[in-house]
Design a protein that fits this description.
Blueprint (H helix, E strand, L loop, with lengths): L11 H6 L1 H16 E4 L3 E5 L2 H15 L4 H12 L7 E8 L7 H6 L9 E5 L2 E7 L4 H5 L3 E7 L2 H7 L6 E7 L2 E4 L5 H21 L1
Helix pairs in contact: 3-4
Length: 204
C-alpha cells in the first residue's frame, strides 16, 4: 500500500482546528470496517492508510513535531504497519480489566503464539503471524502486531460472502470467537490487499 508522505499530512494548526471531526469520523470508520472484538479481552484493529493517517496526525499533535526530518522518521516507522502484498496488518489489543493487576493479567498472555489466532473462512483457517514475539515485546504492554498471509487463492474467499468468516482465539483458557464478519468488513480487508497489489506492480 502506498506509503504516507509529508504531503499527505495537515499542518498542526489546521488539524487541531478540525480534530474533533477527524476523531469522530475515525471512530465511525473503525467501528464499521476495521475493529473486531474476540471475546471480552481481545480486539483486532486492522491498519491501512486511513487509520495510520489519523495515528500519525495525533502523534504529531501531541509531540508538537513540525521539523521535516523528525516527521519523516515517524512516517518511516508507521508506514511499516501498512498492509503489504498478500498480507493484512493488525494491532492485537489486550484489555486489562484491573489496572492494579496489570502485571498479573499480562502474565497470562506471555506464551501466546500467532497460530493461536486464526481467520476462519468457510472450512479454511488462516493462522496469524505474531510480529511482536520477542520476550521484550511481550513485556511492554497491551498491544501486539499481527499479520495474516492471504495469498490470491484464499483472498477471493474474503469476498465470497456465502462463506461465513470470523476470527477465533484458542489460547489456554481463553477460547473465544468474534461475531461473523460483516460484508463491509470483508470487502474493506480485501480492498487492502488489492491496493497493495497495485502498488507492488507500480513499483516493479
Amino acid at each position: 500500500m502506498r506509503p504516507l508522505t509529508f504531503d499527505d499530512l495537515l499542518p498542526l494548526s489546521e488539524y487541531a482546528g478540525q480534530r474533533h471531526e477527524f476523531f469522530e469520523a475515525n471512530q465511525r470508520y473503525l467501528d464499521r470496517y476495521r475493529r473486531i472484538r474476540i471475546g471480552p479481552s481481545l480486539t483486532l484493529l486492522f491498519e491501512n492508510r486511513q487509520t495510520l493517517w489519523f495515528r500519525v496526525q495525533e502523534l504529531l499533535r501531541v509531540a508538537r513535531l513540525v521539523e521535516p526530518t523528525s516527521v519523516q522518521q515517524e512516517l518511516d516507522l508507521y508506514n511499516r504497519l501498512l498492509p503489504r502484498r498478500d498480507r493484512l496488518q493488525a494491532a492485537l489489543l489486550i484489555e486489562v480489566s484491573d489496572q492494579a493487576r496489570l502485571s498479573q493479567e499480562l502474565a497470562f498472555w506471555q506464551k501466546i503464539q500467532g497460530d493461536h489466532l486464526r481467520l476462519c473462512i468457510g472450512d479454511q483457517d488462516i493462522p496469524a503471524l505474531l510480529v511482536t514475539c520477542r520476550p521484550e515485546d511481550r513485556c511492554v504492554g497491551t498491544a501486539h502486531w499481527v499479520q495474516f498471509a492471504v495469498p490470491p487463492a484464499q483472498r477471493q474467499l474474503l469476498i465470497d460472502f456465502a462463506q461465513p468468516a470470523r476470527f477465533e482465539m484458542r489460547y489456554a483458557s481463553y477460547r473465544h470467537e468474534s461475531p461473523f464478519l460483516s460484508d463491509e468488513v470483508r470487502q474493506s480487508l480485501h480492498d487492502d490487499l488489492q491496493m497493495s497489489d497495485k502498488d507492488a506492480q507500480a513499483s516493479a
